[in-house]
Amino acid sequence: MDDFGTWDELDEYEPETFADDREVCPEGRHEFSIQRIRTIYGTDGSERLEITLKHPEARYWPVSASPEVSSKGWRRLAGSLAKALGMSGRALAAAIRDGDLVGRQVVARVWHKEGTTGRVFANVGEFHAAGAEATAPAPVERATAAPGERKPAKRTPKQKAEAASSAVLDDDIPF
Question: Can you give the residue range of the structural domain that contains 99?
Fold first, then answer.
């Protein structure tokens, strides 16, 4: 007999069965903890940033983002993650390499996309600082100009110079 019991006890072991009834995280802003973040290198020379987020409610599946470093999505996600964590790009890269981000809290905007098999996937749009409003944002209404209306013309260099010179007081000496 050792510290773990007897070998005969293994014959009675029954693996647990899990009824995995988790849901896809709904669209909107949610607060998450970073479960895993790493750089993955493909055999074709590609490089991806893999971010796995855990929702505080256990009923939701983890949400993952894995943009390719050469894509526009990578810049948006990595830039918003750095800003949300209050880091520079170089500090974020060092923290990813050292594994210092696991457990940190962030807010992420989640959006859905249906796959070819009909399965719905939760995707990350961008990150925000923890404590930011973690609810679905209100839809933004864009102002549209009435037909025939035009935006006012931008100031010309002459108008800018005149505005700057009129702001200078008589007793001020510009240098």
Answer: 22-129
